Amino acid sequence: MNTNPQFPSQFARGRAAFERGEYRLSVQSFEEALQEISPNSRSGGEIQTWLVTAYQAMGKLDEATSLCRQLTTHPIYDIRNQAKQILYILEAPRLQRPDAWMSKIPDLEKLPDSEPKYQKGQNKYKPPKNEEIGPINTQDNRFIWVALGLVLALLGGLFWLS
After folding, report:
1. What percent of the chain has a predicted confidence (pLDDT) above 90?
2. Could you tell me how far CA 20 lies from the centroid of its own chain?
3. Residue at 44 is within a domain
4. pLDDT score of 4 more than 60
5. Residues 31 and 48: beta-carbon distance below 8 Å
6. Closest to 52 (Cα-Cα) out of 42, 44, 60, 43
7. Is residue 150 part of a domain?
8. pTM above 0.85, yes or no
9. Furthest-apart CA pair in the chain: how many Å?
10. Which of 45, 70, 146, 158 could bridge 79 with an S-S bond, Cβ 3.0-4.6 Å?
11. Residue 32: count of CB within 10 angstroms of its CB
12. Could you give the C-alpha distances from 19 to 22, 49, 52, in angstroms and in order?
């Protein structure tokens, strides 16, 4: 059983880092948590399983496969079974994907810098320098009077029918 109060926080920190995509930090946290607990315990096996996944996410497939092979002989059946399933995935052949299946992400480093449209600390819109604001149409097109007349005619018709 774990007697170190740091273990739960290290393990939780590793899981949180993994979920944020900070795999290097998650590996470090999992390794620290593993030093504080027996690797043959259920918690130790769970940490090692997370560590395998973090190694895989970092691209360290050799370390992930090696640790996963060790876990296939773990004393806890659930850990052993899960390690066998993960090992099956790790050792599966890599399939070639056609280029048509992949989305090309453009390199945004090559784009020229643009001026910000909003000034920091203010909520006022700052139009770009090359954009001119055209004249505003202020002529009354009598739409409101036509709409008001239509509404009054409809209300009068409804009143007359009732």
Report:
1. 43
2. 7
3. yes
4. no
5. no
6. 60
7. no
8. no
9. 89
10. 45
11. 16
12. 7, 15, 14
Half-sphere exposure of residue 98, counting CA atoms within 13 Å on the CB side?
A: 2
CA distance 126 to 53: 47
Q: Is residue 112 part of a domain?
A: no
Per the structure, the complete domain to which residue 82 belongs is given by 6-90
Domain-located, residue 134: no
Backbone Cα Rg of the chain:
32
Number of Cβ atoms within 10 Å of the Cβ of 57: 16
Average pLDDT of the residues of the chain: 83
Inter-residue contact 123 to 97 (CB < 8 Å): no
Helix crossing, 42-58 with 61-71: angle to 10°? 160
Give me the CATH number covering residue 44: 1.25.40.10
When divided into structural domains, the chain yields a total of 1
Q: Record the tokens describing residue 148, joined without a space.
A: 């008001």
Tokens of 38: 């027996």
**Which residue type, as a one-letter code, is found at position 7?**
F
The answer to whether residue 62 scores a pLDDT higher than 50 is yes
Predicted confidence band of residue 54 (pLDDT cuts 50, 70, 90): very high
Question: Checking phi first, is residue 43 left (phi over 0); if not, alpha (psi -120 to 50) or beta?
Answer: alpha
